[in-house]
Amino acid sequence: MTQANPDDITLDPKTPDEVAAWLPVAMREYEESRLEAGDSAEAADAARVLSEERFFPGGRLIDGHLLFTVRLAGEDVGWFWLGPWNGTGTEDWWIYDIRVYDEFQRRGIARIVMQRADAIARDGGAKSLGLNAFAYNVPAISLYESLGYLTAALHMRKEL
After folding, report:
1. Are the CB atoms for 12 and 22 separated by under 8 Å?
2. What is the pLDDT of residue 88?
3. 141: helix, coil or strand?
4. pTM for the whole thing?
5. Staple partner for 14: which of 8, 18, 25, 51, CB 3.0–4.6 Å?
6. In what residue span(s) does the N-acetyltransferase domain sit (predicted)?
């Protein structure tokens, strides 16, 4: 598969209407990821509700956070969300979600977006940039490690 040309990748801020259409899709994917990571259905649902209430009160993204449509040569290929860890005005920023649609994966798009995240966060006053990766998502973890991310915590579990 051909690697994406970085010049063809844009991060376009989502409009309020785009956020409204995106939110149920992203929250469903978040809940499914929690289930795949081992959460019970109740815990995954509760985490989704908490996230939605915290970051999207009334369906609107909280101030200080940035949500983009990722485009390749103008075509919608995913989304990207980052912002301060605890609301606004913090030096610790977080990548809350990055998603490249399956048919566009393995082309270097996520790597380019993640590299751009450094400058976006730095411009926002960040001194650090963190993220969470579910253990089952080995390709994402490999990408993050190759970009210099280090494991800050490790949660482990086993089924009984």
Report:
1. no
2. 61
3. helix
4. 0.91
5. 18
6. 25-160
Beta bridge partners of 81: 67, 97
Tokens found for residue 30: 């978040």
Phi, psi for residue 99 in degrees, rounded to 5:
-145, 125
> What would be the CATH architecture of the domain defined by 6-146?
3-Layer(aba) Sandwich (3.40)
Quick one: tokens of 138? 């080995």
Under DSSP, is residue 145 helix (H, G, I), strand (E, B) or coil? helix
How many CB atoms are located within 10 Å of the residue 120 CB? 19
Rounded Cα–Cα distance for residues 36 and 137 (Å): 10
Write the DSSP string, 109-139: HHHHHHHHHHHHHHHTT-SEEEE---TT-HH
Q: pLDDT tens across 22-58, in order?
A: 999 999 999 999 999 999 999 999 999 999 999 999 9
- Tokens 């109740």 -> residue: 42
> CA angle, 134 as apex, 81 and 1 as ends, to 5°?
70
Please list, in sequence order, all residues whose beta carbon lies within 8 angstroms of the beta carbon of residue 59, skipping any fewer than 6 positions away: 19, 20, 23
List the one residue out of 22, 120, 131, 29 whose CA is nearest residue 69. 22
For residue 31, which phi and psi values (nearest 5 degrees)? -65, -40
Give CA–CA dist 71/141, Å, rounded: 23
